[in-house]
Amino acid sequence: MTQDIRQSHIAQAIAQRAHDVLISHNFAQQQIGYIHTFDMNFGESVPQRTMLEVELAAAAKRQEKSTSHHKYIAKASNHLHQVIESGIEMQLSDLDSIYSEVVGVQDAVPTILDILAVKSASVGRLEPLVNDLSWLGRDLVSLVNLPQYRKVNSKGTSVKVDTPALALRYLGLENLQMVIPTFAVRHWMPHSTEPFPLLKRKLRDISMATAIAAKALAPLYDVKEQHAFTLGMLADLGKIALTRLYLKTFDRVWQGKIKIARDKNQKDLHTALLELGPDPLFLRNLLLEHAPTVSQRLVEQMAFKYLPFNAAITEVAQSYLPNMNKNLDDLLPLTQVLKKAYGYAQYQLLKDSHLIEDEEAKYWFAHLELTDQEQDLLSKTSLQSLQLTIL
After folding, report:
1. Domain count within the chain
2. Sign of the CA dihedral with 28 first, then 290, 213, and 7 last
3. What is the pTM of this model?
4. By CB atoms within 10 Å of each CB, which of 171, 180, 257, 358 scores lowest?
5. What tens digit of pLDDT does each residue of 183-221 get?
6. Any long-range contacts for 320-326 (C-beta under 8 Å, 24+ apart)?
7. Domain-embedded: residue 337
8. What are the residues facing 152 on neighbouring strands?
9. 342 exposed, middle or buried (CB, 10 Å; 0-12, 13-18, 19+)?
10. Nearest Cα to 224, choosing from 119, 95, 102?
């Protein structure tokens, strides 16, 4: 095996593992054959009483029944997910619905991001748009009223900001270039990702880490920091959309199948369906296969006038997974920044979960073409804090 092929194989495994750990830590461990130490029997074996023949026969019968039951559940799950997969494919063909209903993007958000990208940007131009987005106004007011950002008057009393207009002026345009894309992506996150409770937080964290890393790398590639940060925040919109779509579709199809089984008195099927829940492997594969394309389509749907994102997000989608046959030459500077930032955010996620070895990290950084200078820069960058400066 050549060094290039070995690097490609390791990079593919790491990219998949980064998606596994998004779903859950236990799922990622299972995918790499992790053995819990408390499942292992250390020391002397515990003496066991010899089982009687009748007990052996009963145990064998229980095992057979259990195996048969699990096979039936697996069959029911397979059929259920075939229906779910068809439903998702049909819904993905309706981009307008994914954009406005599944993710819930309001047209004012891309307009605000566009305004923030031009020299003629002003708080006055943003104010009427923010007033139309009640959630954004509330978030901005809550932010500036945090203890670390509150202003103090001449009497030493904290001044409370109570309107979005004041919050906008208090923050200023430079801070808003980071705050508004961050709040927008947070607003689009699923309200709940049960039965994968940490998925929502991890999606939020990796979006934040990608955006901050991209902003840090941008000057090295003569890319505008605001462009890098904003596209970094938007890069995982596909995962947000697909997670929402899968959990919603699963619930709808599952409840429909349970009703049919109950109405037809199909007790075995009804029992099996009650034991089923959203499948981590199905969701992982859905994200791997479709997230980059869905992200690309959603960013294009935003129809930015001044943010040059379409070409870069297309290149990212085309080269999303490590594959020697899909590497693109002469990537745009913004694409290079985004791919390195996202790759480093994936590395950080795996490192925090203790799921990447030092030797694997070396191969991963080589695949990303992340230089020693860039690694040093990112290692010193706080990837979960916006580091706002409010005067």
Report:
1. 1
2. positive
3. 0.88
4. 358
5. 999 999 999 999 999 999 999 999 999 999 999 999 999
6. 320/291, 320/292, 321/12, 321/15, 321/288, 321/292, 322/8, 322/11, 322/12, 322/14, 322/15, 322/367, 323/8, 323/12, 324/4, 324/5, 324/8
7. yes
8. 158
9. buried
10. 119
